[in-house]
Specification:
Layout: H1 6-36, E1 43-46, H2 50-60, E2 66-72, H3 78-89, E3 98-102, H4 111-117, H5 120-125, H6 138-149, E4 154-155, E5 158-160, E6 165-167, E7 172-173, E8 178-182, E9 197-202, H7 205-218, H8 223-241, E10 250-253, H9 258-277
Parallel strand pairs: 2-8, 2-9, 3-8, 9-10
Antiparallel strand pairs: 1-10, 4-7, 5-6
Helix pairs in contact: 1-2, 1-9, 3-9
Length: 279
């Protein structure tokens, strides 16, 4: 019997990896084809190399932290998608599996400006906007995401949408295998370079408007204040958010029923588990 060399192992490992990657790609493509047949499919568009990159990361980068950035317009369904994906992935909340960082927690404190203006209506009439990248502390958010990828624990801020106050004593976020980050500007130019996967949630503007107005009431904005802010929301989305549609790895349907999100996520995970367990 010939001597087993390290190069032989590397060849075997590489060949096994490629076989596993191919199996994952084939399985995910089948699931995508099934999804297309749905009245409201989850995946609206997927880049050509997206499935291959996911399969490669699953097989060859098992020990690395996986950072998924999910963006879309205000009220497009980002939070619903993230929360229901988590419900499918994690039957029991265990540390080390996932961590969520939300853009909404990183709004800057503007309570002094609100108090000085006297009301939301008056504040908006000065040209103030809650819907530009400058309204959010993206620098701190990126710092926290990088720290989590480096296996460090962080404390995200806590923001009050009614008073517009920001507090540093938010929730402790621990490192995990998967970091999900969602919000208006997670694919902003200053953020996108650290994302392993870039996701855009698309929802028709008429649905966004209906959802947005319902949520605005819970955040203390009604009547003229709500109208003024929604006008700004639409204009800033055109400038800052919609262009990121072009650089996303996949486009998700914000109209999908939350139960279907769980179903298809569960199918994907079971298929990955089945393939990897047979190696």
């Amino acid at each position: 019997m010939g001597k087993f060399e390290l190069t032989d192992y590397n060849f075997y490992s590489s060949r096994l990896d490629m076989e596993l990657i191919t199996s994952i790609v084939d399985a995910l493509n089948v699931l995508l084809e099934e999804d297309k047949k749905e009245e409201q499919p989850l995946f609206l568009k997927v880049k050509d190399d997206f499935i291959m990159n996911i399969a490669r990361k699953v097989v060859q980068e098992k020990k690395k932290t996986f950072l998924i950035g999910i963006t879309g317009e205000s009220a497009s369904g980002k939070t619903v998608f993230v929360d229901n994906t988590i419900d499918a992935v994690v039957r029991e909340k265990k540390e080390g599996i996932y961590t969520v960082i939300r853009c909404d927690d990183y709004y800057k404190d503007t309570s002094d400006q609100l108090k000085a203006a006297g009301s939301y209506e008056a504040l908006f009439k000065t040209g103030f906007s809650f819907d530009t990248p400058d309204a959010i502390n993206l620098e701190l958010m990126k710092k926290h995401l990088v720290a989590l990828k480096n296996l460090e624990t962080v404390v995200s801020p806590r923001y009050d949408f009614v008073t517009t106050e920001s507090y540093p004593d938010g929730e402790e976020k621990k490192p995990a295998k998967v970091i999900l980050t969602e919000g208006l500007y997670v694919l902003n130019e200053c953020m996108r370079d650290i994302m392993d996967v870039k996701v855009y949630v698309y929802t028709p503007i008429e649905v966004i408007k209906e959802r947005w107005y319902k949520r605005a009431v819970t955040r203390g904005k009604v009547g003229e204040a709500a109208d003024l802010q929604f006008k700004d929301v639409n204009e800033t989305a055109q400038r800052y958010i919609r262009p990121t549609y072009q650089i996303a790895d996949c486009i998700i349907n914000g109209m999908v029923d939350k139960e279907y999100i769980k179903v298809i996520t569960d199918k994907i995970l079971k298929k990955l588990s089945e393939i990897c367990s047979n190696v």
